[in-house]
From TrEMBL:
Native source species: Clostridium chromiireducens
Tree of life domain: Bacteria
YgjP-like metallopeptidase domain: residues covered: 22-112, 134-263
Official protein name in the record: YgjP-like metallopeptidase domain-containing protein
CDD domains with a match to the protein in the record: M48_yhfN_like
Length: 270
């Protein structure tokens, strides 16, 4: 059911969903759409009153979503488009050859150290340490996705790229869980990578952690935050102050990572 009301010179529309629950919940979709979940027997008048009281909050959140959307990077499966890996945008090069048996994805350095030294201004840097630092930054930013494909079907290329991200995410989180395990008395029983629309990860009651396959697109320290967050749910199954204190014990600056994810999560996609 769609309902709407006026707030100043703004009109706020929301979708009302009735459920077996005790309280009214207001949430915003990535599109800015407002979804209100309410108990089965709650009157429409009372629901409108509750939502009207949150009107300013709703408008502020919609403005935040619009600002994030305006920063969304357009991606397509063509040479020159970019994809994220560990917080960095890297261009891709599509190489089409019908003789390829399958689509392969590689993230590689486009030029070697020798080529960089021979072909650009770094030949004029005398200080070896300075040269090394500058080359390291260049090498890091000089990576490129090479997509060798036997088809230009975007869906098939997308599936191959998703498979690559799934493998990378699993590889990284396995290592990071091992690294942080010393902080916990309980152990992670299973690690899985899957499609998750609204969560970056989740921890089950049996201490299995399920990761969104897009996690390897996030900055390395932000990915650590996701790992720590879910491992802390082995100690506290909610988001109480005790839970956040536990997260803070292991990662004191976790709020900065959380904020980066909130602001940049819109670009962690293919």
């Amino acid at each position: 059911m769609k309902l709407k009301f006026k707030y100043g010179n703004k009109e706020i529309e929301f979708s009302l969903v009735r459920k077996k629950r005790k309280t009214i919940c207001i949430k915003l979709e990535d599109s800015g759409e407002v979804i209100v979940s309410a108990p089965l027997r709650t009157s429409k008048e009372y629901i409108l009153l509750v939502v009207k009281n949150k009107a300013l909050w709703i408008l502020e959140k919609q403005k935040e979503i619009q600002q994030r959307t305006s920063r969304k990077v357009k991606r397509d499966f063509a040479t020159g488009s970019t994809f994220m890996y560990l917080g960095e945008e890297y261009p891709c090069k599509i190489i089409s050859n019908e003789k390829n048996k399958k689509i392969t994805i590689d993230l590689v350095v486009e030029q070697s150290y020798e080529e960089l030294i021979l072909n650009n201004e770094y030949t004029n840097i005398n200080n070896i340490e300075m040269l090394g630092n500058k080359l390291e930054k260049t090498i890091y930013s000089n990576k490129i996705f090479i997509i060798n494909t036997n088809t230009m079907d975007n869906e098939k290329i997308k599936m191959a790229l998703e498979k690559w991200y799934r493998a990378e995410t699993l590889k990284i989180v396995q290592k990071r869980i091992d690294f942080y395990a010393v902080n916990f008395k309980d152990r992670v029983t299973e690690i899985r990578v899957k499609e998750q629309k609204r969560r970056w990860a989740s921890c089950t009651g049996k201490n299995a952690i399920l990761f969104n396959w897009r996690c390897s697109m996030a900055r390395a320290d932000v990915l650590d935050y996701i790992v720590i967050h879910e491992m802390c749910h082995m100690d506290h199954r909610n988001h109480s102050k005790y839970f956040w204190n536990r997260v803070s014990e292991i990662m004191p600056d976790y709020k900065e990572k959380h904020e980066w994810l909130r602001k940049n999560g819109i670009n962690l996609y293919i």
